Amino acid sequence: MGSTVFKGGVHPDYNKEITATMAVSPMKPPSKVVIPLQQHIGAPCEPLEGIEVGSEVKRGQKIADSTGFVSAPIHSSVSGKILAIGPYNHPLGSVLPAITIEPDGEDRWDESIKPGGDMENLSAADIRNIVREAGIVGMGGATFPAHVKLTPPAEKPIDVVVINGAECEPYLTADHRVMLEQPEEIVFGLKAIMKVLNADKAVIGIEDNKADAIRVLEKAIEGEENISIAHLHTKYPQGAEKMLIQVTTGRVVPAGGLPMDVGVVNFNVGTAIAINDAIREGKPLTERVVTVTGSGINRPANLLVRVGTLVSEVIEACGGMKESTMKLIVGGPMMGKAQVNDDIPVIKGTSGILALTDQDMYLAESSPCIRCAKCLDGCPMFLSPTGIAQFAEFEKYGDAEKLHAMDCFECGCCSYVCPSKIPLTQWIRIAKAEITKAKKK
Amino acid sequence: MDRKLVVSTSPHLKSPEDIQSIMTDVMVALFPATLMGVLIFGYQALVTIILAVVAAMVTEAIILRKGNLFGDGSAALTGLFLALVLPPSPPWWVVVIGSVVAIAVGKHLFGGIGNNIFNPALVGRAVLVVSWGAHIAGDVWVRPQPFAFMADTVTQATALSTYDFSLWDLFIGTVPGSIGETSALALLLGGLWLLYRGHIEWRIPGAFIGIVFIMGLIDGGFGMGLYHVLAGGVMIGALFMATDMVTSPVTPVGRLIFGFGCGLITMIIRLFGAYPEGVMFAILLMNSLTPIIDNLTLPKKFGEVKRSDA
């Protein structure tokens, strides 16, 4: 076991108390759903045969898939009629193909939805197939297809599974709530993951600002000898893969490497629940818990939302958005994406919808760097954000690469902590994009 | 939806700390030393402080063509720093020239805040030392007269010329010297505040003071080690001047090297040089090495060690 705290990071105001005590409530069925064909990292899906404008679909029916291995199929989250197939606003900031469905209000489940059977009777390959067919992706926001993580190459055996219950992003409480409300499902999903990977140990990492979730899960794992709970120091970005693995297992993921290089995979608590639902109930991933919060939301809540529901409808269900809202963000405030408008669908990776007013945030002009080194101290990857940013500003991308710009995972600590309010993370993003572009040539 | 939203890239939260709040924190940290300087050296010290601060702010406002005198607070802070390393009562024009040089040459000639190589206050002082040395070095140090605010001044040799003050006087500050450098106690209080607020860290002051102590100890035993730490400008230099963000290294190892170099040069000048005191030149010399130290001491990135093992 390494240190219980990683080096670097920042302590923003967490503002989780707004929604932390609110139980998850299912949102009323939406008036339409817009289901993007790309909701994951990897190959985009294509509509299946017979899925065209006017055709009827049922809830849970697979409507799009891809032949690519790194991809995840997409299912209808309602029963109804397909209105359109075509480009639509996407929360990641572009316009991407999507299937628009008008619900018929009957919510009929597809015939294919049936329990997968007892875990004892399921082989690793069966479970892996169930997870793939259910379209499960990383629910923490990264949206990496889960079945790919369950298929490590033979030369990289996995011995430890890390479950991410850190939820280090400020404001978000979706993971906190599911840990309180569905501990048994998390443990079941985790055991399925352990079975597939033949891993003999698992750690559930939870930040110590969620003491109630730690208690609930400690109770849920009573008698499980291979599963433990790690009490994590509350610090952003504690939930980042490499930091989480370091503090829960003491292993350091090599630069440029993956967790499996040190025998670890990690899954979000929400992903474990999705795996549970897929195995026990046969349900594909068509809904998720979303924290709708921020001082711009009239009635903040943790909602169970169908994938494809428009953000405008979700906000409407929370009493609407205040006039004073300055920014609408999908995801958390540190790594989420600011939106141009609310006409965008909730996707599998949407953990939060934030409406921020000047109570939560402020806009600032940047001043010159005063070399305070707070960005170096805050960088969990031990980079020199100000150094990379200055090279990026002068378009010296080769020098930026020498300062390891490509190791940045854009947690935002540097920009957060900078007293000169320099958009360091953004400069590093530019450097990364230019370095990648130069490599492709 | 027809309202306009702000769209920018993440992160969407920013720490409330900005340049002005840091400058204010440093001023708060200097308050005990400033107060002790005025209590010990009387009204003339206060006049010098006000002159230096106002001259610095006016110079910056003229250069930046801004009406806001205080601005981000950095000019006022430079003026205050300069005053604290001047004798209590130099002629007014010496103080003003020092401030103007500090801001115009030390700071803005290099490109303004963040771009200066050398600590601006020390640039101002260095110019005064070599140009009007008779007014700010040698026979200008006044005898401390605590709480005698309006007293006439009597000159007295400094602690680094005679080496016969008690450690207690050096600690409290009742010795002749620059306005803000004499009270180790007041400077320590301020330094602790800066440590607490996260604006300095232990490496530069630790290495600086540590090496001064060790070299003093080698030269004259434990007492002499402490004497060298408490006398002259080591405390204000190590806690406030060498830790100036703009002109000191940003890397952890670089800070150790920087502090070590400052202490070493200070003691070489004190023990073997022509000047009784060497803190100013030590810091200025190390300032010039900061970029090279930074480049040579970049920290290893997360996971780099493991990679080479594999």
Largest interface: A-B, 73 and 43 residues
Could you name the ranges of chain A where pLDDT drops below 50 across 5 or more consecutive residues?
none
Strand content of chain B: under 5%
Which architecture of chain B per CATH? Answer: Orthogonal Bundle
Largest sheet composition of chain B: none
Helix content of chain B: 55-70%
Q: What is the helical fraction of chain A, as a range of percent?
A: 25-40%
Question: Number of folding domains of chain B?
Answer: 1
Quickly name the level 1 CATH class of one domain in chain A. Alpha Beta
Global geometry of chain B: globular
CA radius of gyration of chain A is: 21 Å
C-alpha end-to-end distance of chain A: 44 Å
Assembly category:
heterodimer
CATH topology type of one domain in chain A: Rossmann fold
Shape of chain A: globular
- Tell me the total number of β-strands of chain A: 17
Average predicted local confidence, pLDDT of chain B: 92
Number of beta-strand segments of chain B: 0
Describe the structure.
The complex is a heterodimer of chains A (441) and B (310). Chain A is α/β, with parallel strands linked by helices and 441 residues long. Among the domains of chain A are: 116-280, NADH-ubiquinone oxidoreductase 51kDa subunit (Rossmann fold, 3-Layer(aba) Sandwich), CATH 3.40.50.11540; 374-440, no CATH class. Chain A is built from 13 helices and 17 strands. In chain A, the strands form four sheets. A six-stranded mixed sheet of chain A has the order 1-14-13-17-15-16, sandwiched between helices. The N and C termini of chain A lie far apart (44 Å). With 310 residues, chain B is mostly helical. Chain B has a single domain, classed as Ammonium transporter fold (Orthogonal Bundle), CATH 1.10.3430. Chain B contains 14 helices and no strands. The longest helix of chain B is centred in the last third of the chain and has 28 residues, at 203-230. The interface between A and B is large, with 73 and 43 residues.
